[in-house]
Amino acid sequence: SNLTEHSRFHTCEKPYSCSVCNKSFSYRNYLTEHRRTHTGERPYSCSVCNKRFSENFHLTRHIRIHTGEKPHSCSVCNRRFLRSYQLTRHSRTHTDEKPYSCSVCNKSFSDKNYLTKHSSTHTGIKPYSCCVCNKSFSRKQYLTLHYRTHTGEKLYSCGVCNKKFSHKQYLAIHYRIHTGEKPYSCSVCNISFSRSGHLTRHSRIHTAEKPYSCNVCNRSFSEKHCLTKHSRTHAGEKLNSCNV
To answer: Could you report the per-residue pLDDT of 111-169, keeping only the tens digit for each?
Structure first.
């Protein structure tokens, strides 16, 4: 009965068990959906592109790519998103929330992907290697992006000016030139930026953070190009010094 099924929400009873992997479920329909991970069955088909899905929910979400529907709206700037996690991630640009923290240096990030990227700076592990120049990368997507520098492939084209880009992210950033969109806003002074990197650099005006440090004299700088310029003063000292 409906009451019996509802009570499982409280008791955590899981009477339906998968015969392949023994994973258990509270409801029969959950087991039915799970079985498709073993059988590969995809009964739900998109009427536009014929792509198939194992769950109706995934089909519903996919169809929004074709319809352009973006049901998740930011309460601060009204920007809309296709998926709820995209809205959650975007909202942190307004709140400055950074829930993902590095276990090595305690630096915090607003997005889990940023933390993953940062963590590789500590481990130094780069398992993905370019077959052309042998340059190595910490993530497969970085290798894919790099490889296009050899092939010259540019898959993504701007619908306004037809300029082409090797990566979808570069196109998205470029497109803001046409739209004037500046989705990254400073939580202190409300100045907005078209790129997250510009906001990060600007924020150091308020925090006085200087992450770039000279390995000769330990002087720190807020921007990398300032450190590069400074480093030349040491190179000049060595070039002009007497060897005797």
So the answer is: 888 888 888 788 888 888 999 999 998 888 889 889 988 998 888 899 899 999 988 88
Render pLDDT for 81-121 as a digit per residue (tens, 0 to 9): 988 888 998 998 898 899 999 999 999 998 888 888 888 78
Q: Taking a C-beta distance cutoff of 8 angstroms, is the pair 54, 44 a contact?
A: yes
Both structure tokens of 72: 């998740």
Provide the domain count of the chain. 3
52: domain CATH number is 3.30.160.60
In a shared domain, residues 6 and 63: yes
- pTM beyond cutoff 0.85: no
For residues 56 and 39, what is the distance between their CA atoms, to the nearest angstrom? 16
Beta carbons of 126 and 120 less than 8 angstroms apart: yes
For the chain, what is the radius of gyration of the CA atoms? 25
DSSP 215: T
* Cβ atoms of 82 and 65 closer than 8 Å: yes
Q: Which domain holds residue 201?
A: 156-207
Distance CA 83, CA 81 (A): 6
Q: What does the alpha-carbon distance between residue 238 and residue 218 come to, in Å, rounded to a whole number?
A: 17
Spatial contact of 73 and 80, defined as CB atoms under 8 Å apart:
yes
Residues 87 and 148 in one domain: yes
Same domain, 163 and 149: no
- CA torsion, points 138, 144, 146, 148, in degrees to nearest 10? 180
State the amino acid at position 217 in one-letter form. C
**What is the identity of the amino acid at 178?**
H
